[in-house]
Predict the 3D structure of the following.
Amino acid sequence: MAENPDIILVWPKDKRGPRYAQPEGYTVAPLAPAEDDLWVDIHRLAIPSFSVPDLRGWLARYRTLALADGILVARDKQSRRPIATAGSLADGKSGMFPSGGQLGWVATVPAHRERGLATW
């Protein structure tokens, strides 16, 4: 295999992955296109060095690559505030894995890090 900086995980075809419950205190749902500003806001809080114009451009491209309903937003159950995003992409690695997928960007606002959001 050529030099590739990606880490590739292969899951046996006949095995099912473990089921995880959403972390207590949070809800997770697809990010509607009308909520794109939430995605930008979360990323600005998570990584302040990213500019708004860059984030908007990246999100526009991200939407073309993500699976249907594949960009997710986690919200605090009490406040309903959006606090994290993640995404799933169809990525066959140029035919190497025709049914392959990839976890896209994950961003969490600092106040909600280390609370189990990455465990589901």
About this structure: The radius of gyration is 16 Å.
